[in-house]
Amino acid sequence: MTTDGFLTGDEMWPRREFLAALRGEIPTRLESDSLGSMPIPAEAYWGIHTARALENFPITRRAIYNYPYLVIALARVKQAAARANRELGALSDTKADVIDRACEEIVAGALHQEFCVGAIQGGAGTSTNMNANEVIANRGLELLGRERGDYAYLHPIDDVNRSQSTNDVYPTAIKLAMVFGIQRLLDEHRQLRAAFAQKGREFASVLKIGRTQLQDAVPMTLGQEFSGFATTLAEDDDRLSEVIPWLNEINMGATAIGTGITADPRYAEAVRRHLVEVTGIEMETAPDLIEATSDAGIFMTASATLKRAAVKLSKICNDLRLLSSGPQAGLGEIVLPARQAGSSIMPGKVNPVIPEVVNQVAFSVIGADATVTAAAEAGQLQLNAFEPVIASSILQSLAWMTNACYTLRVNCIEGITANTERLAMQVETSVGVVTALTPYIGYQAAASLAHTALTSNASIRDLVVEAGLMEAEQVDRVLSPERLSGMVPLTGALTLPVQLPPDELT
């Protein structure tokens, strides 16, 4: 830690162990690359390429193991590559088998902490790819009965990375991780939508005043309001689902820039087929691998769609905070579950903490989308070097949105109750109900009565009857909850204000 209190990253695991290895404080093994040799902690599954990344990128204090779907996706890509290479004779059965087994263990949750390079890194994701290669190789060596680091028997690059480069592995794994993340988000998002729909049914007969521009408008039901929330979430379910097929277009077989160098011409189709087999997700090889390797357009689409969902969910949370405001001096139409004491100085205060945290998730998603947009634009020539920040931005947004949907549903929506007495009082005293009478008494007369009601606090119903414009029974039928909320259609507007007989008001 520096003197000003900021963490340098030295306290992070496994950077702590890496530094201890450099100082000779723990058992080590020696590994080499084109830049020289370094001592690696003997117990580490990662190797020298990961060690250099630990040294170079102590930036975010968030390693890629914080994104488990990315770790699983990397394992699936390496597993499919090993199977394709064995099928084409580019990898022996023995090596392909231990790579396959190591990957299956990672998918099941093993060794995730070994995927320890920083999520934000230079090199277009090379450190992440090499971290995966080294962990899989060293676990494979164990399965062969060899020591970690004994790469003569299973090599991170020559074997685990056979027929691949970072430039096709990394974007493919990112896309696959995003598919996993969207599927998980959709599950929580749909459960949240169902919770809103249930409240819509529960509040179906609760009449209230609608508002436009924060001013009283016309009546509706609280059920209609909550059903509307459910409908807007359903629209985002559709938009998020539509992104998945675009993410399923991959560039495996492109190797460095899309020309397929170092790979068998049959490899791209073979690895695609095996990736479909191990994931159960239909994927297609991009028709133009050079374009697919350099273009980050799908990431902008995914991020923008996620932002749309976040913004709309945040707007709903704004509404929930307004509707529950008070409880005495605000709208106070609904009551949110009390989750925690709201103030260190004001006794009894309870804040809408769950909608507030969801708002903040949405703000983060909006900012992440701006980051993704800038990173996509900054790509140059045959590769975008900034996919690490694209990946971390979108995967974080997916995880936070998923958690936000869960906590909003469980800790808020399912426990909301209606303040029926307050709602009934507001409807009874609102001049907004006069709008329902305009087809029968005309706009000018309705406006005059509304003004009188506001200045005298008189009942609209009584004013209409006293003016002789309608019979009391007629007013009651027009102003019934069913008609006011639109559940029973109103008679269309008339060209002249007339007093209709009762049988024409049914």
CATH class of the largest domain: Mainly Alpha
**Residues in helix, %:** 55-70%
Relative strand content? 5-15%
CATH architecture annotation name of the largest domain: Up-down Bundle
Total domain modules: 3
CATH superfamily of the largest domain: Fumarase/aspartase (Central domain)
How are strands sequenced across the largest beta sheet? 1-2
Order of helices and strands: HEEHHHHHHEEHEHEHHEHHEHHHHHH
Number of DSSP E strands: 8
Q: Indicate the overall shape.
A: elongated
The largest sheet, given as strand count, sense and whether it forms a barrel, is: 2 strands, antiparallel
Mean pLDDT score: 88
Q: At the third CATH level, what is the topology name of the largest domain?
A: Fumarase C, Chain A, domain 2
Unreliable spans are 1-7, 490-506
| Secondary structural class | mainly alpha
In DSSP terms (H or I, runs of 4 or more residues), the helix count works out at: 19
The termini sit apart by 78 Å
If you compute it from the alpha carbons, what radius of gyration comes out, rounded to the nearest whole angstrom?
A: 31 Å
Organism: Antiquaquibacter oligotrophicus
GO molecular function: aspartate ammonia-lyase activity
Keywords: Lyase
Protein name: Aspartate ammonia-lyase
